[in-house]
Amino acid sequence: MRNTRSDGPVVQVEDVTKSYSGGAGVRALDRVSVAFAPGTFNAVMGPSGSGKSTLLQCAAGLDKPDSGRVTVAGEDFTRLSEPRLTRARRRAVGFVFQSYNLLDSLSVWENILLPQRLAGTRPDRAWAREVVGRVGLSGREQDRPAQLSGGQRQRVALARALAARPAVIFADEPTGALDLSTGREVLALLREAVDAFGATIVMVTHDPAAAAWADRVVFLADGRIVTELADPTAEKVAAQMMAVSVR
Ligand SMILES: Nc1ncnc2c1ncn2[C@@H]1O[C@H](COP(=O)(O)OP(=O)(O)OP(=O)(O)O)[C@@H](O)[C@H]1O
C-alpha cells in the first residue's frame, strides 16, 4: 500500500463544517477535526443522523465542506478544482459501499481493474491477481457480479479497492447487506488488508461487533466528535453508543 509522503496522517480533517440547506437548515458536521494514521483500521459510529456519512463524504472528497480543510495523502482536497479533485480522489482513495457498486456489464476482473483505468494508470495485474487470491476469488475472475453471492460481491469490491493501492479506503456500512457470518468474513479481510498490506481504512458502521475489528472507534453525535475508543471490544463500543445516544 502507498502511504503518505511523511509519517503524518493519511487523512486529516481540520475544523470541517458542513450544512445542508432546506427546511430548518441542518448542520451535519460542526467543526470536526480528526486524523487517520497510515496502516490503521478506524471505525466511525454514532446515532442515525449524527453526521457519519457526511464525514465520510467530505473526508473522501466526494463532497465539499463549507469550511475547514481536508488533506488526503498530503493533498489539500478542499482547495482543488472539481476536475483535479476527481483525479486526486481516483489516485488516493478507494471505496467499499454497502451496495457493492459493481458494474454488472463487466467481469469480476474488469471491475477490479476499473478504478485504475479511470485514473489513467497502468493496472498492476500481478498485484491485482495476488489481491484476488487473498480475498478468495481465484477462479471467479471471468464471472459477472450477478453470478456471485453478496459476500463474494463485497470481496470483489474490496479487491477493487485494494488493487489500486490507494492511500486510504473508505468503507460505508460494508457489512450492512450481509448476514452475520459473511459479514465477519469481510471484516476479517478488511483487518487483514491493514495488518498484511498496510492499508488504511475508515469504516462507517452501526454495528458494535463490526467496529470491534477496528483499532480505533470515533463517535459522532449531532455533527461533532464526542469521544473515541482505542482497542475496542463490542461490549465497550455498545456501552459507548448507549452513552452517546442518550446525550
Ligand atoms: N443531502 C442532504 N440534504 C439535506 N440534509 C441532509 C443531506 N444529507 C444529510 N443530511 C442531514 O444531515 C444530518 C447528518 O446526516 P448523515 O447522513 O451524515 O448522518 P449519518 O450519521 O450517516 O446517519 P445514518 O446513520 O442514518 O446514515 C442529518 O440530519 C441528515 O438528515
From TrEMBL:
Keywords: ATP-binding, Nucleotide-binding, Transport. One of its GO terms (cellular component) is membrane protein complex. Residues 11-247 form the ABC transporter domain. Transmembrane segments: none annotated. This is Putative ABC transport system ATP-binding protein. The keyword ATP-binding applies. The keyword ATP-binding applies. Pfam families: ABC_tran. Signal peptide: none annotated. GO terms for molecular function: ATP binding; ATP hydrolysis activity; transmembrane transporter activity.
